[in-house]
Amino acid sequence: MKKRIECSVSGRVQMVMYRDFAARRARSSDLVGEVENKADGTVFVVAEGEEEKLKAYIEELKKGPLLAHVNHVDVTWGMPGGEFKDFTLLY
Q: Catalytic residues per the record (predicted)?
């Protein structure tokens, strides 16, 4: 069943290629959505796809790329909105 997650990722997650990491992992898992840096230093991720793929994706987000240090991933589950065609990085 398709679902949607909205994640706020905190820690050392900006200036360490975290958005690129999140986008590459999402695309390789056939997820759609977007990722962006927020002014408060967090990274915000919206992803839609199959529930099992989203669960695995959350585990990847908790790890992050090599230079990142993820303190917390706050996840909100919901129903997909269907507005995404691919996975994009917002600036």
A: 19, 37
Q: What is the pLDDT of residues 78-91, one digit of tens each?
A: 999 999 999 999 98
Choosing from 4, 12, 19, 71, the catalytic residue is 19
Domains of the chain listed by start with CATH number: 2-80 (3.30.70.100)
Average confidence (pLDDT) over 41-68: 98
Q: Is the pTM of this model over 0.90?
A: yes
> Is 37 a known active-site residue?
yes
